[in-house]
Predict the 3D structure of the following.
Amino acid sequence: MADPSTYRPKPGEIPDSPGVYRFRDEHRRVIYVGKAKSLRQRLANYFQDLAGLHPRTRTMVTTAASVEWTVVSTEVEALQLEYSWIKEFDPRFNVKYRDDKSYPYLAVTLNEEFPRVQVMRGAKRKGVRYFGPYAHAWAIRETVDLMLRVFPVRTCSAGVFRNHVQKGRPCLLGYIGKCSAPCVGRVTPEEHRELAEEFCDFMAGRTGTYIRRLEQQMNEAAEELEYEKAARLRDDIQTLRRALEKNAVVLGDATDADLIALAEDELEAAVQIFHVRGGRVRGQRGWVTDKVEAVDTGALVEHALQQLYGEESGDAVPKEVLVPALPEDPTAVTQWLGGRRGSNVSLRVPRRGDKKDLMETVQRNAQQALALHKTKRASDLTTRSRALEEIAEALGLDSAPLRIECFDISHLQGEDVVASMVVFEDGLPRKSEYRRFQIKSFDGQDDVRSMHEVVSRRFKRYLAEKDRTGEWIGADSPEDADAAAHSPTHSLAGSPAGGAVPADDGRPKRFAYPPQLVVVDGGAPQVAAAQRALGELGIDDVAVCGLAKRLEEVWLPGEDDPVVLPRSSEGLYLLQRVRDTAHDFAIRYQRSKRTKRIRTGPLDAVPGLGETRKQALIKHFGSVKRLRQATIEQITEVPGMGRKTAESVVAALAEAAPAAPAVNTATGEIMEENNGGSTR
């Protein structure tokens, strides 16, 4: 781990101008690329006190061994150079995008003598007109099959085309009217290219003009009594309208726009893009990215724009780009997009109307994509097995930790201190085993002492259940052990999920199962507290580690340096998921306690009135307001409420009730007492 001060540039060396910078590690590999309006101000942020840096930024600067920069004349040039370097060096600390080049496009090869319509994947080629991307190739083929009746453009490969040129006979599509058969000279190259260009115009959204022209030709043919021609044109119009129906009308005007939405958490972000051309959704694409660097929504939007349009030009860049949040420097990004398109591009956040409604639809798609990604990644058996093996290897465990328990502490400025325990068995959450704890031994923001208390309480209960039901690795009898081995809770290890099965009802007690691994939400201090709690109870067969929020480092007891798992490690992903689940569970409990405390606030002053009787009063009367209106006799009707306690409740509520303001009967204005006088 390097010290950033060893490679910090000297004062005055960094220019105060726009540019792009690169951090390199000790092997001269580029690990991060960034841009800045002012290189001096931006780079100075990286060399401040490490404690003030974002955890991911701190990891990056301690991994780096040098920094270099390139000065450019404008911010637009900096944006372009940053994109080029990210593509070239693939830095490990920049946002990583999944490869999305497998999306199929509808392509028209205008660079050939006889343009061909086909499905294309991979990198885009010069001279080829692209439409899409589409989610599925079959959707393209269905659209093309409808369109070929009206635009009989060639769809065969070069080999098939040459074969029919030699034979002098067209293919089946040529016989049924879905190809103009340029291979046998039915149309000239100029006529076939005109067909291809009309096909492109229609796919680009210029549909209304073409359909109106066909309707006019149909009417003229009917007036001239050419009924066969009119019927054919009628069928062509119906075919084109069926093709248009496959793309839902989403906007009233002929909008040419891309809509980009994001769904994100602390670890990953899902990007979804809808391509709208002529007011209709012409394509959709999306990917999931690992948030390796510390970025906000605006920075993610900027990275997404670079990914989408970095290699595009012309009409591939739309007139309007709608985003959920603007980048840090929207003017530079807009100029860069305009340079890619060759004309002005509008970059904005939709605030109202149909475009905002469509953006909400794109947002829902992004949220579903992120949820689906997490579900697939967590539910795959092979992936979970690999994650457990990686954890065991990284932490030096004898076997995979099939039962993992994670603890987290939550409080609000030292009040309502609570803790959570979540359980993962075989890499999946076991919600029936989740537990919540109230920390009552002390007040204050001391997560270390709280962690020691909650781990002690959990394992004291385990030892008590262990003494009551026998050793956790077995049961009271061979028959019980055999029954346990065939129980529904049998884990991948070939034994019950770590626990004893009592002989009375066959169900384990609440704390009868010990974990193979305890994970705490925190760093070295919290890990030491948990290890100390286990040591005081004489438990030495449970491993302990800690994972601090948003860090990629795993802390072990007694170690000065953390264990660093690869960012793409499935083991790290599982530990992060366990930690985040415990964190969310603790926060929900803490918020529920705070809500209850607010609801029963005036009752807190009643001596001897516990939480159970407070809730009973609120439940009986419905609210504190109605309770304040109740008499002592009515309060004593609540189970557990004696007359003395009821009198204390009435007195406390009367003391806490706000005084009614005095009202001037002549003017109706509220008067306030103030040193014997009155003020309005």
In short: The first strand starts at residue 19 and ends at 24. The chain has 21 helices and 23 strands. The mean pLDDT is 77.
